[in-house]
Amino acid sequence: MKRLTLTGWLACVLGLAVWSHAQAIPAASRLGVAQFGAGFSVAGPNCPSVAIYGLTDGCTSSTIISGLSVYGSFDFTRHFGVTGDIHKLSLSRPGEDSYLFGPRYVFHYNRYHPYLKFQGGLSRFQTTYNTAYTYKIYAFGGGLDFDLKRHINIRAFDIEYQKWPQFPFDGISPIVGTAGVAYAF
User: Fold this and answer.
1) Domain containing 67: what range?
2) Which of 42, 96, 146, 184 could, after both became Cys, cross-link 35 (CB 3.0–4.6 A)?
3) How many structural domains is the chain composed of?
4) pLDDT exceeds cutoff 50 at 1
5) 3-class SS letters over the chain
6) Predicted confidence (pLDDT) at residue 41 exceeds the cutoff of 50
7) What global pTM score does this model have?
8) What value does the CA radius of gyration of the chain take, rounded to a whole number of Å?
9) Which tens digits make up the pLDDT trace of 96-136?
10) Are 88 and 69 within 8 A, CB to CB?
11) Distance between CA atoms of 24 and 43, rounded to whole angstroms?
């Protein structure tokens, strides 16, 4: 009789464990993953050359400009998040600065994290004559981040195709490339 009672209790306990999924509620969990970084950017501004009083502004379709970038991202889930970029490509003239923010989708393959993004924001075009104009822009692109260490990410590349529809002469479409290092929280 004791053996039968013991077997019955054991069956109930094991049965309840299966019914309750036998999992504890996590004591601590993260709301998301954030990273902030800086990098070096290069762009082909794709702007028309403008002549004023016989002098050109120094911008042609083959002009290459470079500068610094600051970027950050916050992933709400494993794949979806938001990202923001500030490109300061006006260290020389002519120059372009852009301030972008938007959603991103991340794929994960071990240490590698390719992503796609779509952003909108403002841009600032500076001519060689030290005049500046502000425009609304949008951009889409993607890139590849990989984990160097637990909290250090390397941005191997980030390519953005920007569209400045309000720019004179039917807009411009610069392509901006960035490489950098970020700290992940």
Assistant:
1) 32-184
2) 184
3) 1
4) yes
5) CHHHHHHHHHHHHHHHHHHCCCCCCCCCCCCCEEEEEEEEEEEECCCCCCEECCEECCCCCCCCEEEEEEEEEEECCCCEEEEEEEEEECCCCCEEEEEEEEEEEECCECCEEEEEEEEEEEEEEECCCCCEEEEEEEEEEEEEEEECCCCEEEEEEEEEEEEECCCCCCCECCEEEEEEEEEEC
6) yes
7) 0.78
8) 26
9) 899 999 999 999 999 999 999 999 999 998 877 777 889 99
10) yes
11) 51
* CATH code of the domain containing 146: 2.40.160.20
Residue 97 lies in a domain: yes
Residue 178 near residue 39, CB atoms below 8 Å? yes
Q: Which amino acid is at 113?
A: H
- Name the least confident of 17-21, 95-99, 160-164: 17-21
| Residue 22 within any structural domain of the chain | no
